[in-house]
Amino acid sequence: MATTAVPTDRLRFGRPAGFAQTARRDAWWIEPVLTLVGLGSFVVYATWAALQGKFYYIGNLLSPFYSPEIWGPSPHAMFGPQPAWLPWPSFLPFSAAILVLAIPGNFRLTCYYYRGAYYKAFWADPPACGVGEPARGSYLGERTLPLVMQNVHRYFLYGAILVWFFLVHDVWKAVWFLQADGTEALGLSVGGVVLAVNVVLLWFYCTGCHSLRHLIGGRLKVFSKHPMQHMAWKVVTWLNCRHKLFAWCSLFSVGFSDIYVRLCAMGVWHDLRLFMI
Amino acid sequence: MAQATFQIFRGDSKGGALQTYTTDVGEGMVALDCVHQIQAESAPDLAVRWNCKAGKCGSCSAEVNGRPRLLCMTRMADLPEGEPVRIEPMHTFPLLRDLVTDVSWNYGVKKKIAKFAPRKPDAADGSWRMQQEDIDRVQEFRKCIECYLCQDVCHVLRDHAKHDEFAGPRFFVYTAALEMHPIDTGDRIDAVKDEQNIGYCNITKCCTTVCPEGITITDNAIIPLKERVADKHYDPLLWLARKLGIGDGETGAGA
Ligand code: SF4
Ligand code: SF4
Ligand code: FES
Ligand code: FES
After folding, report:
1. CB neighbours of B255 closer than 8 A, spacing ≥ 6?
2. Which class for B133: exposed (0-12), middle (13-18), buried (19 or more C-beta within 10 A)?
3. Quick check: is B249 in a domain?
4. Of B45, B60, B93, which residue is a domain's last?
5. Which residues contact A236 (CB under 8 A, 6 or more apart)?
6. Fewer CB near the terminus (10 Å): N or C of chain B?
């Protein structure tokens, strides 16, 4: 019978362990690393793309990062070019994306799924379940500023649903092609498919939201008195169980949609027309 | 019959060490069987708490290879072969001896939660009428066997030792069962925010991962409670609606 001394930080019973200390033997670090790389690359790319202010549209295609285009140089702009009265920092090129990205950006930032994922991956709080955290002075959680603001997630949900309708409108515009005689004809190109798939995935992501699940019916104590709300709650619950899946799929599709439109606009890719009616 | 090596924590609150034992492992054996066999063969004074050996009493909670688990539900066949099996007591509660911890802190937390407050009976015989769809959510929570593995893994307790302020996932499940109960009239939302301090939970879902009863603790209990707290304390439109007396009185009820 051999004896192995146990490092005291493994037997802490209420005292913090050292960073990454654990008796787990599985590759617990894979998930936080994938989250770090996945979310990190998206944030870097989205910030870069939003700051460009160009190559975000071509013909009937508009990048979802720039939609709705309130003001801007493209024919998709709702109110024409940047108005003279709108203050804009001189070191930044004018970009319609900056005016709208705060809504979907904060929607994802305050999403319950992403919160749990980035607290682990970016803050190591904890790095993974049952794995020691880096030494920190205090722990405040989501009780105080700034993180208490996560509680307004439902307002970003309302904003995101509004933006979603603009993206549906963009898909509608993407299936109308300008003809040589100046008329428009219905058709479909790969770009239209890309934008449409993106809109579907975003809808599944938005409607699996925990706040929506609560507001649409989860808040009720007695479902049987509200059969319609109960039904809606069940549908949202089904999507909510797959929220992580749709969070990642829609993150990828929205990034890819921008890349697709950008490369077409830059002339790297050509938007292949599938058929015309 | 294959032999397996175990590293089992022996000691008390003053200190201890992992001790290595070997024992035969037969088909269908679980970690608790092995611990009992080791007790019988070489360590008669090894302390381990158990009762049902069926995953229903919640007594045999421990950490196997760093993962909070019920010893009686941990099949040896599911553990990596040829590696020593490391068994430690739960880290989040004071150690009594060997694999036994003092979980009585949890009993105190439960006592502070406002009790079930049913409305007046629906029938003259003192009974109530409820529909199945109204109690589905609560029935999931009633599966809890109070093993406290979720409390053990929760970093708010495990790493930040907020035992004095934070109720922990088990008691969010308990509170959610009361808050979602169709005949309950209580309102525990202020307490969820200010006494149970649900805001410490950063929804990392570790509690859900370890629950041996498969209760979806974070998604079905904690987040719905966080949303109820948001209804009552962080939603300006609902605040206004309550002031104006608009709404069905269910969202942020009792405000
Ligand atoms: S989800 Fe919340 S309660 Fe559950 S383990 Fe994580 S921090 Fe603790
Ligand atoms: S919720 Fe699950 S893990 Fe927590 S005490 Fe109950 S059965 Fe155990
Ligand atoms: S919880 Fe993820 S979008 Fe609302
Ligand atoms: S002995 Fe009862 S749950 Fe393991």
Report:
1. B232, B239, B242
2. middle
3. no
4. B93
5. A207, A208, A209, A212, A213, A216, A217
6. N
Q: In degrees to the nearest 10, what's the CA dihedral of A141, A102, A60, A247?
A: 0
Q: Write the single-letter amino acid at A80.
A: G
d(CA A126, CA A20): 9
Phi, psi of B64 (to 5 degrees): -110, 120
Residue window 5-64, chain A: list those with CB within 8 Å of chain B: 5-6, 8, 10-17, 22-25
Other CB atoms within a 10 A radius of the CB of residue A275 amount to 8
Tell me the mean pLDDT in the region A110-136.
95
Give the count of domains, chain B. Answer: 2
User: What does the alpha-carbon distance between residue B41 and residue B18 come to, in Å, rounded to a whole number?
Assistant: 18
- Asked if B109 and B235 sit in the same domain, the reply is yes
Phi, psi of A23 (to 5 degrees): -95, 0
Domain range enclosing B202: 105-244
Q: How many CB pairs under 8 A join A and B?
A: 176
pLDDT at residue A62 above 90?
Answer: yes
ipTM for the predicted complex: 0.94
Whether B74 lines ligand 4, by a CB cut-off of 6 Å, is no
Same domain, B223 and B111: yes
pLDDT tens, position by position, B98-118 = 999 999 999 999 999 999 999
> What band does A155 get if pLDDT is binned at 50, 70 and 90?
very high
Which ligand is in closest contact with the Cα of B168? 1
Distances from the Cα of A133 to the Cα of A18, A235, B237, B253, angstroms: 6, 38, 38, 38
CB within 8 Å: A15 and B161: yes
> Which CATH number covers residue B130?
1.10.1060.10
Structure confidence by residue, pLDDT tens digits, B57-101: 999 999 999 999 999 999 999 999 989 999 999 999 999 999 999
Of B209, B198, B138, B136, which Cα lies nearest the Cα of B171? B198
